[in-house]
Amino acid sequence: KSLVGILQKDLVKNATDTYGCRVVQKMLEVACRDALVQMATELNDHVIVCIESMHGNHVIQKCVERMPPDSVGFIVQAIEEQTCTMASHMYGCRVVQRLLEHCALGRLSKMLDDIVGQAATLAQDPYGNYVVQHVLQFGRKDDKAAIIAIITGDVVTFSKNKCSSNVVDKCFEVSTIGEHAQALEKERAALMQAVLGEPGAETPPLQQMTEDRFGNYIVQRVIEHSRGAERERLLQQLQDATPQLKSSVRGKRIYATLQKELGLTQAKAAAS
After folding, report:
1. 24, 37, 95, 202: which one has the fewest Cβ atoms less than 10 Å from its Cβ?
2. Binning pLDDT at 50, 70 and 90, where does residue 265 land?
């Protein structure tokens, strides 16, 4: 208790110190509820300073993980005042992710709305893309539907971007096997249609992605998540692109996925 009292006297300084932050994190793990509440009070006006610190951000993350849910409102409020700035910050994105993991979604409504509203930009950000993926994993059903719709609107561009290709992948995952997959059937169908394109198209979106550094990975993931009639259309398109695919390293990766997911014989038939 005496150590807790000593650290609390200069909590922000300790939280942002190379070694002090480790002691504060340990204190957060062992402190009683009353001490945790007191620490929240001490940090109340210094959340952003701590988040932007390479050491202090770990303390704020630990606060989210260890403090009673009704005691982290000061962190939520600080984030809400500049959600997208924090979501695209190298340390701030970590705190936003912890909030999504540990807080009731009803308490994060404004933060979630802000993230979804800027999802197209955040998806292409080196740090923001992780936040968008976390919303797809932990967010409300409507948040997930909205993000999938945004990605669907320009799926080729998002698939070819280093950062947002991860979000495209997550969209397919959560709409196929995620918690709200059944409720996202409509959004999933639209996303798959956007990748496959209109029947008879000269250069379907899928084929625009096959030779791209990041897009070819999405093609592999689409194969893994495809089913039924859409899988047959997918296979047909890849069969039509056989000459190009057989002559490239990335095309061979796609064939390897076909062999794994569709069976060696069927994949060979497509390649012949």
Report:
1. 202
2. very low
